Amino acid sequence: MSKASSVRAFLGTVAGARWMRPLQLAATLALTIWIVVSLGEPAVAALKRFDFTVLLGALALFASAQIFGGLRLAVLLSGTAVPWRDAIMTTWAGYFFSNFLPSTIGGDIFRLGRLASRGVETARAAGILVLDRIFNLVATFVLLALGMTGRFPQYLMKGLSLNHEKAVLVLIGGAIILGGMIFFALASARIRNMLQLALRPLRELRRNPVIALSAFVLSILNLGVAILAQWLIIRQLHGGVSLIELTVIVCTVTLIVLVPVSFNGLGLQEGAFAYFLVQAGVSLSVALVYGLLVRVLIVMTSAIGGLLFAAERARAVPGARA
């Protein structure tokens, strides 16, 4: 298969099947309606008590995650002509397009096109973007595993009415299902093409483990500061959730939102947060308010990326106003 067709397969995988769009729309509307109906006076009271200066601090932390993500991309782009500032802009503006378009393909196409315009070979750029996602996924699993040493598993088992023996059976069954999913995914031509795109930059990382270690550390920082920002919010709303518990919840929800049930995880993310926070002892109204405030962080951080990109474009046009 040619490099061009591999890139097309990569974009086709990111875009997803067209027949899923109506299902995603229906799921998004249903979940959003449920959230709106579930909000009531307790939620309004929680918002009135909330100190919105905390939201500004959380926003600063949450936005800094894009800087760490951009530095990770810069590390993976070592050996190319792309400066680290450009890598940060590529990541942040791509985050904007991912969250303001009904599919993450908008952000991926932007990042791919921008890297290609900076002289990075298209196939290599696509492979680096796949590898960038893999590092983020690995960091999520690592933090999830570390956080599982806390009390959260007991909450989860209680919410699912599981004892330890049943929990082991569920884990074994889940492992079998996951293994089957991985097998069929690897059997998919599109998934194989995505992995093929990532092989070249992966081989380069094997020759330079310092780059791989740096990318992993930046991935931990990228996810870590985002979790810390969200913990500031839940601490203000409900002080009973520890940072470790929230780390497990955020990582779990992050993995759940990867399933393309709704557009950009809208409704699905808020619903998942509500479920797990309720198991941790948070009231449903407060949990929903938390989910909405996290959505505000995402939108505002995305908007910052869009404004920075617009300012860059304005400076690039001769005679344009800043």
Question: Which descriptors would you attach to this protein?
Answer:
single chain, 322 residues, mainly alpha, globular
Explained architecture:
The chain is an all-alpha fold. It has one domain (41-307). The chain has helices spanning 3-15, 20-38, 41-49, 52-76, 84-100, 105-117, 122-147, 152-159, 164-187, 189-207, 209-237, 243-257, 268-279, 284-316. It is globular and about 55 Å long.
User: What oligomeric state do the depicted chains represent?
Assistant: single chain
**How many β-strand stretches?**
0
Helix content: over 70%
First and last CA, distance: 45 Å
Uncertain stretches of 5 or more adjacent residues:
159-168
Q: How would you sum up the global shape?
A: globular
Strand content: under 5%
Write down the overall mean pLDDT.
Answer: 79
Write the layout of secondary structure elements.
Layout: H1 3-15, H2 20-38, H3 41-49, H4 52-76, H5 84-100, H6 105-117, H7 122-147, H8 152-159, H9 164-187, H10 189-207, H11 209-237, H12 243-257, H13 268-279, H14 284-316
Give a brief rundown of this model:
With 322 residues, this protein is mostly helical. It is built from 14 helices and no strands.
